[in-house]
Amino acid sequence: MEKSYGFEVSLNGNKVTRAGISKENYVVNCIIGSVHRENDSGGLYMQIGGLDSDLDMHFSWLGEQLNHGDKISIEVIDGEFDEPTSKSKALTEQEIREQKMKHYLQLKEELKDFLQE
Predict the structure, then answer these.
(1) Would you say which domain of life the source belongs to (predicted)?
(2) What is the number of structural domains in the chain?
(3) Under 8 Å between Cβ of 47 and 63
(4) 51 within 8 A of 27, measured Cβ to Cβ
(5) Contact at 8 Å (CB) between 49 and 60?
(6) Segment (H or E) for 27
(7) pLDDT at residue 117 above 70?
(8) Alpha-carbon distance 71 to 53, whole Å?
(9) Residue 2 DSSP symbol
(10) Quick check: is 97 in a domain?
């Protein structure tokens, strides 16, 4: 097996996680975002997650709100990784269809005055 790579992430000088998956088929990502909308919603955030592609399991190591001036350090690593804080199985096709149908029915009700039958 080739080496598995991940990320050691520090926030304001404090190590928050060593995220990685010791497998051949995986995804690990660090997402740092800034969102601002017209209604003043949004914010600064950092998410660290991944996917075990063989088991179709989603992992999360961190979901954190950020503040102006925060300093983030990300180092590419291999070797020992921290256990994720949460794991979840990807949705089945049936579950995806059920969610879509629920959303469709909600929209149909919400937009009934605009629909022509």
Answers:
(1) Bacteria
(2) 1
(3) yes
(4) yes
(5) yes
(6) strand 26-36
(7) no
(8) 31
(9) P
(10) no
Residue 114 inside a domain? The answer is: no
Looking at every residue in the chain, the average pLDDT score rounds to: 92
Strand partners, 64: 46
Full residue range of the structural domain in which residue 26 is found: 5-89
In a domain, residue 98? The reply is no
Tens of pLDDT, residues 20-32: 999 989 999 999 9
Beta bridge partners of 72: 11
Q: What is the C-alpha separation between 88 and 20, in angstroms, rounded?
A: 16
The reported pLDDT for the residue numbered 73 is 97
Q: Quick check: helix, strand or coil at residue 98?
A: helix
Asked if 59 and 51 count as a contact pair (C-beta separation under 8 A), the reply is yes
Query: pTM for the full model?
Result: 0.74
Q: Select the more confidently predicted residue: 2 or 105.
A: 105
Q: How would you class 57 by CB atoms within 10 Å of its CB: exposed for 0-12, middle for 13-18, buried for 19 or more? A: middle
For residue 44, tell me if it sits in a domain: yes
Averaged pLDDT, 57-83: 95
DSSP code, position 113? G
